[in-house]
Specification:
The protein is of the alpha/beta class. The chain folds into two domains: 200 residues, Rossmann fold (3-Layer(aba) Sandwich), CATH 3.40.50.150; 71 residues, Orthogonal Bundle (DNA polymerase, domain 1), CATH 1.10.150.170. It is 43% helix and 14% strand. It contains 14 helices and seven strands. Strands 3-2-1-4-5-7-6 form a seven-stranded mixed sheet, with helices on both faces. Strand 1, helix 2 and strand 2 form a beta-alpha-beta unit. The longest helix has 15 residues. 45% of the residues are buried. The protein binds S-adenosylmethionine. S-adenosylmethionine binds next to helix 2, strand 2, helix 4 and helix 12.
């Protein structure tokens, strides 16, 4: 869920695609829910209510500040067993699956939460000057400033191009390397200045903030976001009981591509070449896709929360 301007409070936080999530996950009393990206707990609060006083909810987040939101959601939820597990969902889900813990619904709402973007000191925002941090897990060693200080020009160019789909990746990487040889780039404001200075003048005034894509790329790199998704999806699937639902909300095409491919591969039955008269592979579909068309927020939702506009939802049920 992306932020509004003021600091987030779990009680007034409206999660993205909330009604669609509730409908597709269709939580029944007694079930076990795993929210792999708890954030400010907006989705968890609604899904816990759907348990109607009986069932379990396991909340995962790598950001230690999510814990206080969890405590608030727990305090206002009666009869549901709730646990907070801090860590990368890819690791936690695989540990839970390895220990034979089952789930009826797993939710991943990817990206940044309001509690992260709304706090300038976390260094995620190009709109406010702050230390260039961007770690979701503040105990991780690598910060965005480390990447900017130590990655070589080609590596920087690659992450800006791949994770940010930044047209001027080469010019920006070159600008960073030149600037850091004069003085360290340790603040978000300094990075914004370098980006502005490295791109052609018309691009500085184009659509959106000129540093938006570079900030996105850095955040994905610092937090290994795509690696977590690649590893987390099979772990989530393994945890699901037959009939269990998996739902993922992503915010850019790189994430959505990974989710789409994962679901399509598991939904596929026979993989024999079409010219084979009979099936010899014996491959059976492992899931049924619940969203043949990608689900996007309604115009009304985007009106209320413009930052939800890039959200894309896919869901499936385990066979
Ligand atoms: C978009 S927010 C979730 C918002 C939440 N659904 C709500 O309604 O408040 C994403 C959250 O996932 C967390 N997160 C992102 N990647 C993660 C990962 N690999 N493991 C654990 N948590 C992660 C972030 O720290 C952030 O709090």
């Amino acid at each position: 869920m992306l932020p509004n301007v003021q600091q987030t409070d779990a009680a007034d936080h409206v999660p993205v695609l909330a009604e669609e999530v509730r409908e597709l996950l269709s939580i029944q009393p007694g079930e076990t829910i795993v929210d792999g990206t708890f954030g400010a707990g907006g989705h968890s609060r609604l899904l816990a209510a759907d348990l109607q006083g009986s069932g379990k909810l396991m909340a995962i987040d790598r950001d230690p500040t999510a814990r206080s939101y969890f405590d608030r959601v727990k305090a206002s939820t009666r009869g549901v067993q709730m646990r907070f597990l801090r860590g990368d969902y890819a690791v936690v889900l695989s540990q839970l699956a390895g220990n034979g813990v089952g789930a009826d619904a797993v939710l991943l709402d990817l990206g940044l939460s309001s509690m992260q973007v709304d706090r300038p000191e976390r260094g995620f925002s190009y709109a406010t000057d702050a230390a260039l941090d961007m770690r979701m897990d503040t105990s991780d060693e690598l910060s965005a400033a480390d990447v900017i200080a130590t990655w070589d020009e080609r590596e920087l160019e690659k992450i800006f191009r791949t994770y940010g789909e930044e047209r001027y990746a080469r010019q920006i990487a070159r600008g960073i390397v030149r600037r850091r040889s004069e003085s360290p780039i340790e603040r978000t404001g300094q990075l914004v200045d370098v980006v502005r200075a490295s791109i052609p003048a018309p691009a500085r005034f184009g659509e959106g903030h000129p540093a938006k894509r570079v900030f996105q790329a850095l955040r994905i790199e610092v937090n290994h976001e795509l690696e977590s998704l690649e590893a987390g999806l099979p772990a989530a699937f393994e945890m699901l009981r037959p009939g269990g639902r998996l739902l993922v909300i992503s915010f850019h095409s790189l994430e959505d591509r990974i989710v789409k491919r994962f679901l399509r591969d598991r939904a596929r039955g026979c993989t024999c070449p079409p010219e084979f008269p009979i099936c010899v592979c014996g491959h059976e579909p492992e899931l049924r896709i619940l969203t043949p068309r990608i689900v996007r927020p309604s115009a009304r939702e985007v009106d209320h929360n413009p930052r939800a506009s890039s959200a894309r939802l896919r869901a499936a049920v385990k066979i």
